[in-house]
Amino acid sequence: MSELRRTDHPGAPAIKLSRHPSSASSARRGILIVAVTAVLAIPAYAQRGNSQAPTSPVTGNAANGKAFYYSYSCYACHGYNGETGRAFVGNWSSNLATEENFIRFLRGRANVAPLAPSTSMPNFAENTLSDKQAKDIYAYIRTFKNAQPDVKNIPLLNQMVEDAARPSK
Length: 169
What we know:
Layout: E1 3-6, E2 15-18, H1 23-46, H2 62-71, H3 75-78, H4 99-112, H5 131-141, H6 155-165
Antiparallel strand pairs: 1-2
Helix pairs in contact: 1-6, 2-5, 4-5
């Protein structure tokens, strides 16, 4: 039986695929390919921007900011911890470098595109979100940490890799 070598992601280890695997073996390998690709894609996506969180001073109140983050539905696009959807944890843009940059980003968008936004992020003029509220949201965002586990610490993935490596019966 001849074998093919396949990688679905640059830098990913090659996976041996036989041309005529049993259906169980094929299913395990398919799951393995999807799992490995997904795990390897997450860090690649997150490392597109500055991976270091900002260290500028924060004057807002993070507890209040959490309430505003939810009431303004920021979580709908950025996730509950800033790591999903339009993630910014691990991809800190200059818009999040300081409170001033964050507010300038929110206000500039409102001044440039108040009726027809150029992106799906809402515009926040000062009459809809005060500077104090924006600073509170910024303070809450700054509490977010990258919680991505090391690949070796993902039990289900490790079990899948072990199962896929076993010869089929």
